[in-house]
Design brief:
CATH superfamily: NAD(P)-binding Rossmann-like Domain
Oligomer: single chain
Distance between the termini: 64 Å
Largest sheet: 6 strands, parallel
Number of helices: 10
Strand content: 15-25%
Radius of gyration: 17 Å
Structural class: alpha/beta
């Protein structure tokens, strides 16, 4: 498979999940010059992006049909499975050479499953969870932990740079999710260590 060139003004971006973080991240891509097609279960949550010039699609499949690269950032692994692998999901609407990028904090095993299913259809897949919260999303200072084929990750550089500040390639499919898991554990451990000791 030939890795696509990803260029503002040429590459069509799809975005699934326009919550607090997703809305800001997709907005940065619009600001960088990409055309963006969006889907969210609650359409009103996409209003700010539609006002910036994004197009609306009625399903994840329809987003993919109108896009070259599709980003997803939804709530939970079950949501990722539905919007990517479901009958009306992004993979069903993807053509050979398209790229799927899941930025949800999800399961490494699901990232590998998506990668394999996409590969069987001639589609590229990358897992790229983020750290930095809604402030990082709003200020385009997210840390992005990425798993997938290196050449695809490198081709996506214009997108990473529009959304984040610390961009780290971690290794093959699932590696981004593995790194995010470690990050979460370290944060939780640090929070417990900082908690005051209550004596009774």
């Amino acid at each position: 498979m030939t890795v696509p060139r990803i260029v503002p003004g040429e590459t069509r971006i799809g975005w699934i999940g326009t919550g607090v973080m997703g809305s800001s991240m997709a907005g940065h891509l619009i600001d960088a010059g990409f055309s963006v097609t969006v889907f969210n279960r609650t359409k009103q949550k996409a209003d700010s992006l539609l006002a910036k010039g994004a197009a609306w699609a009625e399903s994840p499949k329809a987003v993919a049909e109108a896009s070259d690269v599709v980003f997803t950032i939804v709530g939970f692994p079950a949501d990722v499975r539905e919007v990517v692998l479901g009958d009306n999901g992004a993979l069903a609407g993807s053509k050979p050479g398209n790229v799927l990028v899941d930025m949800t904090t999800s399961d490494p095993s699901l990232a590998v499953e998506i990668y394999e299913a996409a590969k069987a259809k001639g589609v590229f897949s990358v897992d790229a969870p983020v750290s930095g919260g809604d402030v990082g999303a709003r200020n385009a200072t997210l840390s992005i932990m990425i798993g997938g084929d290196r050449e695809v990750v490198e081709a996506l550089q214009p997108c990473w740079e529009a959304m984040g500040k610390t961009i780290v390639y971690q290794g093959p499919a699932g590696s981004g999710q593995h790194t995010k898991m470690v990050n979460q554990i370290l944060i939780a451990t640090n929070m417990r260590m900082r908690s005051p000791v209550v004596r009774v």
